[in-house]
Amino acid sequence: MKGKALIIDNDFLFVEFLERILTGRGYRVWRSYRAGKGLEMVRRQDFDLIFMDYMISHADGEQIIEFLKGWAKDKGIVVVVYSGCLLEQMESAKDMGVDYLIIKGPINNMKREIEKVLEEVEKGGRQRKTKIIEPRKIWPRQETARLLDHIRYMKSIIDSLPMGIIFVDSDGIITGCNIKAMDILDLSTEDLLGRRIWELSEGSDINRLRDLIRDRTTHQGDEKIMEMVFNGKTLTISAISLIFDYETNGWVFILKEKKG
After folding, report:
1. Which CATH superfamily is domain 161-257 in?
2. pLDDT tens-digit profile of 25-82?
């Protein structure tokens, strides 16, 4: 066996395609179709190789990359990020800091490119800077560029808010946060992502949070206001249910420091 590989992607067919390549070369493969579960797996297991779709659903790919870079540092983990939309943001993609960045193209071409990446990894070489692999005869699309610009704009709004915001999936796993949340808790992306929200709390609040996450009777916008200790700080916390496609998809936690 050449090592352990993790795939974080909600595209079932592409995961199958990638898994066949990896198992064919002797890797043991784990897969996660949800960002939160994948992040938790990274925390709990030792992987040699991590593949992730930059545009995985219901998560901030850029923030997950920050987490993976911090986690992989000094552990020898090779991080490979891929997406079909990175061609439209090449300038920022160059600064992602992962080992490999693959821009998705025709499937036959991708198989060859992925095999080349694995050959380099197996020779033991690490990239000093991100190696970008681009398909031929594919051009940037204006509509995709506009969509990505809109996503960045909405993210800048969230980061500009004067209160901390933590995004939690339906399993209670933290999948994202804004800058203010990290400031309030004095924790980094690496400290927060992939943890269960109740791991930030203590005492009886742990069970209160577990019960809240398990409650499937909530409606869009339902808010529960609590006073809790998060990472040693007493905060006023608003937990708002997030309904997507008519079911509870997670929670938004709003953190406010107590005045006085």
Report:
1. PAS domain (3.30.450.20)
2. 999 999 999 999 999 999 999 999 999 998 888 888 889 999 998 888 778 899 999 9
Residues with Cβ within 8 Å of residue 168, at least 6 apart in sequence = 174, 175, 197, 213, 250, 251, 252, 253
Q: How far apart are CA 43 and CA 72, in angstroms?
A: 10
- Residue 10: burial class (beta carbons within 10 Å; 0-12, 13-18, 19+): middle
Cα–Cα–Cα angle for 34, 67, 151, nearest 5°? 70
- 177: helix, strand or coil: strand
The CATH number, out of the four listed (1.10.357.10, 3.90.1150.10, 3.10.180.10, 3.40.50.2300), of the domain defined by the range 3-133: 3.40.50.2300
For residue 113, the Cα-to-chain-centroid distance in whole angstroms is: 24
- Are 54 and 82 a contacting pair, CB within 8 Å? yes
**Distance from C-alpha of 196 to C-alpha of 40, rounded to nearest angstrom:** 8
Segments making up each domain of the chain, as ranges:
3-133, 161-257
CB 224 within 8 A of CB 212: yes
From CA 190, how far away is CA 216, in angstroms rounded? 29
Residue with tokens 């897969």: 31
State pLDDT tens for residues 112-168.
889 999 999 998 766 667 787 776 666 666 676 677 777 788 888 999 999 999 999
- The burial class, CB within 10 Å (0-12 / 13-18 / 19+), for 108 is exposed
Q: How many CB atoms lie within 10 A of CB 110?
A: 20
Determine how many CB atoms are found less than 10 A away from the CB of residue 224: 14
